Amino acid sequence: MASRNLPPRIIKETQRLLSEPAPGISASPSEENMRYFNVMILGPTQSPYEGGVFKLELFLPEEYPMAPPKVRFLTKIYHPNIDKLGRICLDILKDKWSPALQIRTVLLSIQALLSAPNPDDPLSDNIAKHWKTNEAEAVETAKEWTRLYASGA
Amino acid sequence: MDSEDDMHDAHDVESLDDDFYSGDTPMGSEDGDAEYDFVDNESEDSEDVTSHRQQQSYTILSVSDIRQRQEEDIHRVSTVLSISRVAACVLLRHYKWSVSRVHDEWFADEENVRKVVGLLEKPVEMPNARELPCGICFESYSSNEMTAAACGHPFCSACWRGYVGTAISDGPGCLMLRCPDPSCGVAVGEDMIRMLASDEDKQKYSRYLLRSYIEDNRKTKWCPAPGCEFAVEFVMGSSSYDVTCNCSYSFCWNCTEEAHRPVDCATVAKWILKNCAESENMNWILANSKPCPKCKRPIEKNQGCMHITCTPPCKFEFCWLCLGAWSEHGERTGGFYACNRYEAAKQEGAYDESERRREMAKNSLERYTHYYERWATNQSSRQKALADLHSMQNEKLEKLSDRQSQPESQLKFIIEAWLQIVECRRVLKWTYAYGYYLLENEYAKRQFFEYLQGEAEAGLERLHQCAEKELQVYLEAEAPTKDFNYFRTKLAGLTSVTRNYFENLVRALETGLRDVGPSGNQANANKNTSPKSLLGGKGGKSGKAKVIGTSSRSGDEAWTMATIGLASTAPTRTRGRQTCARCANSTGRFGLCCLLLCD
Ligand SMILES: [Zn+2]
Ligand SMILES: [Zn+2]
Ligand SMILES: [Zn+2]
Ligand SMILES: [Zn+2]
Ligand SMILES: [Zn+2]
Ligand SMILES: [Zn+2]
């Protein structure tokens, strides 16, 4: 599908994502649908996800930028704010969305969430509990999952 | 017009009132001057009603009342804090429309309040450039095509309109709209909305603002009746949650279910849930027809009271609830109303486990059915009474005034009677939910409760029948009827008696009948418990009823009262009739003549 009906803002965002990617993040639109992005985020250093390559999908709904993009992890990840289906608990993807935010800011926020898990605002109760009762062990599991599922092979 | 039996019925209610509630009416009645007492009673009652209405614990607000109050509050804050109307509105919204809270917070720490709600002390100008980039569509525009909130963050008008429109269609959150810039929290107030929103959206916004004034305030709620636009302001700490809206709907301010005194909110929620779960089993109850117990033809219930007369030629009179003959109603239980009571079939002999379980399941459904049917029937009876009340107000009263040559102002007692019936049907209905959840093992309580409920049922039946059927005669009369004044006295008397009875019943049930001891405790209960202290609330005072009553009620204690330790002071149910101590008339169940008719 061509970019014919795309608002100029989306075209500009896409061009900038491709020409000046944020460190550790890549996002490229799919051939068939310019509103659908294949995303890769590198696990931040000094986090349990270090060394992992995480695949995500990002979709810009018709109302974008008045409505937030829809984002989800495709790679399995052990994280208190991300559930089995890869859905992410992040305020700017919900009520804190503002049309002045962008794809880039969303992906940077997700990257930051990997560095700083927040078990007090969990999406996955079990993992959050694990994190709160035995953080060291939870971090080990996260590392283990990173090795198993996000080794980028 | 009345058979002797009917007269007795009226006697019963009046005497019942006297007996139970003389403690409530501090009259000099030890001398037993019945007629004087009655008159006294009446004026006492009307005073009661007025004072009741004056100390109402709530205020009904119309949409224009609400707008006016809201405007006044905004104006007050704007004046006291010397800020714009729009800023005052933002502040009040944030602090849930509490003027005092706004003042407190503001004068304690204005700077912090400004930060929290997004109000700048001085507006910031937009960047001074010929062309500015819009942070939403990423296009550039000349600065006169750009708009900004007080913070000066520029966005093009098209993006602003999209932003505001999206927020309004997302719901009441639009009342707390902030600048789209993610690093900025400046409030976007009503002035911006007026400038940027479509007409339709402006209306929605102002509707949200109005709703917020009611919904975010702890002291106000909307009337839950469908389509009703009134709101209710409640005085916190009032003793009763019952509220009657100007649309005539009564509801509980606490849980917003329909009014449900004397049952508490938790029980109501349980009961409603139970009814939902059982609704398939219970549909047949809501069907409005039953076979006549005598001729088996289906009879439709098209009236409010439970006394049903089959169509000619059968004309069998029976009770809608228990299908027993009306003439014997109560007789088989020793002269009092007992069709409210559920008695599980007694099972004898040995059962195997599965049989017993099946039997128990059947019993529990039967028990529920018993209470549900009475609950539901009183509900539909109430609906019927409401409809009758309206037709009375809208047409019949005029007709009656015509037929009986009475000014309509002299016929208010009929409206009062119907209002009372509507209210009592509601209370009676909820006593069945109350009864359902009374514990099986609280034997004494259950006995006493069923006794009180039975009396309430019987009293209300009489009032309902009088207003429904006896009135008919006067409506259809060709010329003014001589005994219309008699009818007036009777209906007004029944209304007042029934009102007192139900008010006291509600109070007694609300205190959980806590004065009733367990049945093993008879000796104590005998000394300390009387229906007066239970029902009168104020206790202490002994009225004439007791004085008259003691002589006639010494020996013949009804078994239920004896078992619950109320024998000495309970209104004694006697088998058969007795003689009134004053007029030598045959008396009602309590050995007391009806004061109303004894002259
Ligand atoms: Zn724009
Ligand atoms: Zn701003
Ligand atoms: Zn209403
Ligand atoms: Zn309630
Ligand atoms: Zn019949
Ligand atoms: Zn009956």
TrEMBL record, chain A:
GO terms for molecular function: ATP binding; transferase activity. Belongs to the ubiquitin-conjugating enzyme family. Transmembrane segments: none annotated. SMART domains: UBCc. InterPro entries: UBC, UBQ-conjugating_AS, UBQ-conjugating_enzyme/RWD. Catalyzes the synthesis of non-canonical poly-ubiquitin chains that are linked through 'Lys-63'. This type of poly-ubiquitination does not lead to protein degradation by the proteasome. Mediates transcriptional activation of target genes. Required for postreplication repair of UV-damaged DNA and for adapting root developmental programs to suboptimal availability of iron. It comes from Vanilla planifolia (Vanilla). It comes from the Eukaryota. The active site is at residue 89. Keywords: ATP-binding, Nucleotide-binding, Transferase, Ubl conjugation pathway. This is UBC core domain-containing protein. Residues 5-151 form the UBC core domain. Interacts with yeast and human Mms2, with the RING domain of RGLG2 and with UEV1A, UEV1B, UEV1C and UEV1D.
Automatic annotation (TrEMBL), chain B:
Transmembrane segments: none annotated. It comes from the Eukaryota. GO terms for molecular function: ubiquitin protein ligase activity; zinc ion binding. CDD domains: BRcat_RBR_ANKIB1, Rcat_RBR_ARI7-like, RING-HC_ARI6-like. Its cofactor is Zn(2+). Residues 30-48 have a biased composition (Acidic residues). Keywords: Metal-binding, Repeat, Transferase, Ubl conjugation pathway, Zinc, Zinc-finger. GO terms for biological process: protein ubiquitination. Pathway: Protein modification; protein ubiquitination. Residues 130-343, 134-178 form the RING-type domain. InterPro entries: Ariadne (IPR045840), ARIH1-like_UBL (IPR048962), E3_UB_ligase_RBR (IPR031127), IBR_dom (IPR002867), TRIAD_supradom (IPR044066), Znf_C3HC4_RING-type (IPR018957), Znf_RING (IPR001841), Znf_RING/FYVE/PHD (IPR013083). The keyword Disulfide bond does not apply. Residues 1-54, 517-552 are annotated as: Disordered. SUPFAM superfamilies: RING/U-box. Its EC number is 2.3.2.31. Belongs to the RBR family. Ariadne subfamily. This is RBR-type E3 ubiquitin transferase. It comes from Vanilla planifolia (Vanilla). The lineage of its organism: Eukaryota, Viridiplantae, Streptophyta, Embryophyta, Tracheophyta.
